[in-house]
From TrEMBL:
Gene3D superfamilies: Nucleoside Triphosphate Pyrophosphohydrolase. Coiled coil: none annotated. GO terms for molecular function: hydrolase activity. It comes from the Bacteria. This is NUDIX hydrolase. Residues 44-178 form the Nudix hydrolase domain. SUPFAM superfamilies: Nudix (SSF55811).
Length: 208
């Protein structure tokens, strides 16, 4: 048996979009089950996201602290953002987010991992990059707005973050998945064996 996710799409008898928001929408599909029955499935339609685990020379991860209204918390996170343009190259989007949220650039980029955040209720796919060889970005800082105007920054050692994750002190999925994937990669074939930054991403196809 090969443990690998496979693409499959069951028959949809009908579909509607009862809500359309600024960036996402809600869709209702009538899906045919294997036994022939038809059930309704509601889910959020999402453009996809990128996130950046930026690792400095002192083995610290660059974090931001941001208010997230749906969960009523200020969360420690890694820089991340939406794929606003259909077909947008995820590496370019990740480089933009690292610049806008932290005014940092990186010379070495790898794909750390790809995940579906909540596949039972949302089609969001996230590509988490590993960025190394960090330095301050050129030019003026990006003008923050909304929740980002209150954003804090920190650089935290990887070992400390692992302890915080396992203690339940931090909850952002990209931070948790990214840090644990980093530790797993180090314990496996090493960081240089990670996929290149332009590796194919079937969940969100993109232009080179």
């Amino acid at each position: 048996m090969t443990i690998k996710d496979t693409r499959e799409e069951w028959e949809i008898r009908a579909t509607e979009t009862p809500f359309t928001g600024n960036k996402t929408s809600v869709r209702t599909d009538e899906v045919v089950m294997p036994d022939g029955s038809v059930v309704r499935r509601d889910y959020q339609v999402h453009p996809g996201s990128v996130a950046v685990l930026a690792l400095d020379e002192e083995d610290r991860v660059l974090l931001i602290n941001q208010y997230r209204h749906p969960v009523r918390h200020k969360l420690w996170e890694i820089p991340a953002g939406l794929l606003d343009v259909p077909g947008e190259n995820p590496l370019h989007a990740a480089q933009r987010e690292l610049y806008e949220e932290a005014h940092v650039k990186a010379e070495d980029w790898r794909v750390l991992t790809d995940v579906y955040t909540t596949p039972g209720g949302c089609d969001e796919a996230v590509r988490i990059f590993l960025a190394r060889e960090l330095s301050e970005a050129d030019g003026e800082r990006f003008a923050a707005e909304h929740e980002e105007t209150d954003m804090e920054h920190a650089r935290v050692p990887v070992d400390e973050l692992v302890r915080r994750i396992l203690a339940g002190d931090v909850h952002n999925n990209c931070l948790v998945v990214g840090v644990l994937a980093l530790v797993a990669a180090r314990g496996g074939d090493g960081l240089d064996a990670l996929r290149p930054a332009d590796a194919p991403w079937p969940a969100r196809p993109f232009e080179s």
